[in-house]
Amino acid sequence: MNQNVLVLSASPRKGGNSDLLCDQFMKGATEAGNRAEKIFLREKKIHFCLGCMACQSNGGKCVLKDDIAGILEKMTVADVLVMATPVYFYTMNAQMKTLIDRTHPKYPDFGTKDIYFIVTAADPSRDALERTIEGFRGFTSCYRGLNEKGIIFGTNAGNIGAIKGSPAMEQAYEMGKNV
User: Fold this and answer.
1) Which CATH architecture has domain 4-47+60-177?
2) Three-state DSSP state, 93
3) DSSP character string of 9-25
């Protein structure tokens, strides 16, 4: 295998349900011989996109001075991206959406890579999480070469740690193992 896996965790709490699924994915990926790194977005300074379009005319450099350049570089060199978010009001949380908006300096090409989505919510219905997946697909449809490979639905997981023991934990591990 020996792929470079980058996990982008938008959980606002370490050990939160989506973050636990990230860890399981990483465990499977590393046990299969891949390199894996997790970026915990909460720990990064990421400003909102200004929509100024400067990055499109200056070689892809954002005018904002924050942590996004390093994150974008890691996203660019990764073979596999994992984007994980808790679901708030049936969509991705603000941390993930802000990251997505700030990928504009790389538009329209991150290179070819596989992408996985992890979503968690208190709602027991997988169908209720489809709006969040459509938001992710809106992002991936704007970039050449991002190939959706899998989705982990962590349903019925409202309280911290509620995902433990659920089928999603094993699913995350197996998906990671098979990247």
Assistant:
1) 3-Layer(aba) Sandwich (3.40)
2) coil
3) E--SSTT-HHHHHHHHH
The pLDDT value given to residue 14: 87
Amino acid at the residue 88: Y
The tokens for 72 are: 């974008």
pLDDT at 1: 67
H or E stretch at 137: helix 130-140
Q: What angle do CA 122, 24, 114 make, to 5 degrees?
A: 95
Cα 92 to Cα 67, 134, 141: the distances in Å are 20, 10, 17
Report the distance separating Cα 86 and Cα 157, nearest Å.
Answer: 9
pTM: 0.96
User: For the chain, which residues score pLDDT lower than 50?
Assistant: none
The set of residues, in sequence order, having a beta carbon less than 8 Å from that of 93 and lying 6+ positions away, is 10, 12, 85, 86, 87
Domain boundaries of the chain, sorted by first residue: 4-47+60-177
